[in-house]
Amino acid sequence: MTPTTVLSIAGSDSGGGAGIQADLKVFAALGAYGTSVITAITAQNTRGVDAVLPLPPRTVTDQLDSVLGDFGVRAVKTGMLGNPAVADAIAEAAKAGRLPHLVVDPVLVATSGHPLGVVEAVERLLPYAQVATPNCAEAAALTGRPVTTVEEMVAAAEALAAGGPAYVVVTGGDVDADGESVDVLCGGGTTTLLRAPRVDTRHNHGTGCSFSAAVAVRLAAGDPVPVAVAAAKEYVTRALTGARDWELGAGRGPLDHFGWSC
């Protein structure tokens, strides 16, 4: 059987834990064929980001045209965009209906704290997103209000959903809710809290990339958004659990995308 094709538009992570590299691992782990459009090249590892080189918008659109001109892409996710000019190019493709089941992961800051994007770039794409997946820091940057509690996550998700995306998931990995990891899903006229046991680990590099990539795979397979989001949360919880005793790198290590330790 021919696998479903999914596309990632994101930056390259030389350490392999996030960005394009993480997305392709998730696609493969979940049975999809992964394609990619690279928006920037980074020099990074588990300890941090050492350098970022954004690619010219024309180089990004050339990659996009090559992929879409040959593959029947069923879902698309975006990560690091780099700058508003690249975001404009991607938004034009989305506006033209070329990016089905678009999942926007508004990558603004790396796990290490290094800035990787600007709010204006993310805002270009949000109106075209079927699902947007900001973490708490990204939701705060996009709404201009604090997002440090579950209640504030709910308010941020509802505010962002009112501004364009069909669904918004504010991921709560940075909020310890009585030993649980709580994500807030808003869309379709409802707001839902998704709960899972909190995984005690420092190896969480690429969690947001992996979550949004998993959502895209499930949307490509035909799942409704709430089902896709729930499945992605279960996948990331397993991947965090599998990698918590790993010793890959001296900093925040990657996830167990393939279930090697589970």
Question: Could you characterize the architecture of this molecule?
Answer:
With about 260 residues, the chain is α/β, with parallel strands linked by helices. The protein has one domain (about 5-245): Ribokinase (UDP-N-acetylmuramoyl-L-alanine:D-glutamate ligase), CATH 3.40.1190. The chain has helices at about 20-30, 55-70, 85-95, 120-125, 135-145, 150-160, 205-220, 225-245, and strands at about 5-15, 35-45, 50-55, 75-80, 100-105, 130, 165-170, 180-185, 190-195. Strands 3-2-1-4-5-6-7-8-9 form a 9-stranded mixed beta sheet, sandwiched between helices. The protein is globular. The mean pLDDT is about 95.
Keywords:
262 residues; alpha/beta; UDP-N-acetylmuramoyl-L-alanine:D-glutamate ligase; 8 helices; 36% helix; globular
Q: What is the percentage of strand-forming residues?
A: 15-25%
Give the class from helix and strand content and strand pairing: alpha/beta
Question: Which quaternary structure do these chains form?
Answer: single chain
Count of strand segments? 9
List segments where confidence is low: pLDDT < 50 over at least 5 consecutive residues.
none
Which geometry do the CA atoms define? globular
- What is the H-and-E element order? EHEEHEHEHEHHEEEHH
CATH architecture field: 3-Layer(aba) Sandwich
For this structure, what is the CATH homologous superfamily?
Ribokinase
Q: In angstroms, what is the radius of gyration?
A: 17 Å
Distance between the termini: 27 Å
CATH topology: UDP-N-acetylmuramoyl-L-alanine:D-glutamate ligase
The largest beta-sheet arranges its strands as: 3-2-1-4-5-6-7-8-9
Relative helix content: 25-40%
User: Mean pLDDT, as a whole number?
Assistant: 93
Major sheet attributes: 9 strands, mixed
Q: In DSSP terms, counting alpha (H) and pi (I) runs of 4 or more, how many helices?
A: 8
CATH class: Alpha Beta
Integer tally of domains:
1
Keywords: ATP-binding, Kinase, Nucleotide-binding, Thiamine biosynthesis, Transferase
Function: Catalyzes the phosphorylation of hydroxymethylpyrimidine phosphate (HMP-P) to HMP-PP, and of HMP to HMP-P.
GO biological process, one term: thiamine biosynthetic process
Pfam family, one: Phos_pyr_kin
